[in-house]
Amino acid sequence: MKLSGTPAIEVNNLIKRYSEVVAVNDISFQVNDGELFGFLGPNGAGKTTTINLLTGLAQLDAGTINICGIDCTKNPKAAQHLVGTVPDESNLYPELTGFENLCFCAALYGMRKNERQKRARELLDTFGLADAANRKFAGYSKGMKRKLTFAAGIIHQPPILFLDEPTTGIDVASARQVRQIIAELHRQRTTVFLTTHYIEEAERLCERIAFIVNGRIVRTNRTVDLLKPIKGKNVLVLSISNSATELMGEMNSAFPGYQFQSTTSGQVRIESAEPVSIGPLIRFLEERGIQVTEARQHLPSLEDVFVQVTGIEAGLMMKEKEKAGGGGNQ
Amino acid sequence: MKRWIAFWNILVKDMHAYYLKPPNISWGIIFPLAWTGMFFIRSGSGLESVLELLPGVMTISILFGTTSMLSVTITFERRSRSFERLLLAPISLEQLMLAKTSGAIFFGIANAFIPIIIAAFLVDLSGIAWPLVVPAIILIGIVSTFLGLFIAVSVSEVFEAQTFSNFFRFPMIFLCGLFFPIISLPIFIRWLSYILPVTYGVDILHGAINGEHIISFTLDFVILAAFCIVLFLLSLRNIKRKWIV
Ligand SMILES: Nc1ncnc2c1ncn2[C@@H]1O[C@H](COP(=O)(O)OP(=O)(O)OP(=O)(O)O)[C@@H](O)[C@H]1O
Ligand SMILES: [Mg+2]
After folding, report:
1. Which comes out higher in pLDDT, residue B125 or A17?
2. Which CA distances in Å does A112 have to A119, A277, A294?
3. I need a surface site. Which of A110, A111, A247, A307 has the fewest CB within 10 A?
4. Does residue A272 surpass a pLDDT of 70?
5. What is the mean pLDDT of the segment spanning A246-259?
6. Which residues are bridge partners to A211 per DSSP?
7. Which residue in the set B1, B87, B89 is minimally distant from A109, CB to CB?
8. Ligand 1, residues A14, A18, A196: which to mutate, most atoms within 8 A of Cβ?
9. Does B89 touch chain A (CB under 8 A)?
10. What is the helix (H) or strand (E) element at residue A213, kind and residue range?
11. Distance of residue B77 Cα from the nearest chain A Cα, in angstroms
12. Which range marks the domain in which residue A71 is found?
């Protein structure tokens, strides 16, 4: 059924509007067969909308969607047998037990009774829910609900899996368990499309990541390649008593090897290829009436890349301002 | 085959989760019982009026049974988002909606037999043309379910569905000739009777039970069947347009 070399998911120039809001704004990407692909973006970026478009729960305004070589643009039902979906909210039946819920979901994919029950028991074990198997879903805790919803999404062993923020709203241990299950599915060569706003989760799990902001993909790359530019970089974060935004230009010229960025109010980020020496920096700031309350060495991670990439406009604007201000004073 | 496994299990799940629950069984039995009792007592004109009232009481039982069930299985599931699960399943929308409505249809048909059983204790039912009554009950069951479906997919909230369906259900008691012939309605609202599908079902029941009907049976059946098809197709179109946005 699957042609070798055909991408599992191929999306071109996808657009989705909700009256005024352009939820998905001309995005294109490919997910290869067996790949774990991450969709990383803030609230309202368009992650859930993208999944809804790909699974046929929403209608696209423009663009094309191919799943395993099947054109789903016109007929979103065409590839539904190949796809499993774990939505961002638990949506199983409150009046059925955990076991009944899983068996019902299996039946929706045409699985036979023996097969359904065997697989349901297997998954209840995997997710540590065997003891709650015969309890009504309505009485499950939030984390248990989430896990059962995950189990329901993979009951028919789909070759392609959509996960919408699978670890949001559950405790640390459950989240770790869910990540292990995702990693295991990936080892078994399930193609996974995962949305998240946990940068660390994306970094740890995904082979390739797309950053999505305001309905647009601002960068897509392999995780290792995204991390390359910051590898070996030294990052220091200073917490300071009052804003130092207007000092950025001065600091950049006083310490030419370092790159300064005033992140949120009250913090200065220093990036450098060489280890950063703290003493001169503190002295410099204190001479200008700014107290340093904390200095923290920071291991650069995908978060730094994300901030860099998605904060492009804010960063640029700040630099332009500094340049203009600095030029005028001298 | 796989699709039928899905179809069957959707139906069984609804039965198990909603229809066979004590509140619904009692609603299904008590409601027609209450109507039957009320009309039989109210008429006070002796047992011969039982047969005259039977078509109306049967129709009310079907109408309320089917429409109230649909608001649970469809409107409520949509709000709790479990309906999305069904939309994601690899079965066609047509088949899915048939599975979701068959339960309501069976429930309505079963409800219709409650007044019949009660009437059997009171009067002689041997004069009834059952070969007409049974298909008429089935078609009234289908058409009122699809009418309920049409209402459910035209609104987005449970309470709206209920208000809206009452907006249809109660006037239909008077407009569709359930207890008095539509001929007796003022001429300026009589056209309403003719655009409501239940009118044609009730006409068959009156004819088959009391021998009085105003439209030919063939025409009644054809119109009922046409309403079933049109309402179902309109509902599907609305689902595609309004629920998959
Ligand atoms: N059904 C809808 N009607 C109107 N607007 C919508 C609808 N669904 C999404 N939107 C809008 O589209 C944008 C993207 O929403 P979406 O749910 O895809 O974001 P998200 O990335 O999943 O966010 P979150 O992390 O909060 O889940 C938002 O501005 C949202 O308000
Ligand atoms: Mg979302």
Report:
1. A17
2. 11, 67, 62
3. A307
4. yes
5. 86
6. A40, A219
7. B89
8. A18
9. yes
10. strand A208-213
11. 8
12. 9-227
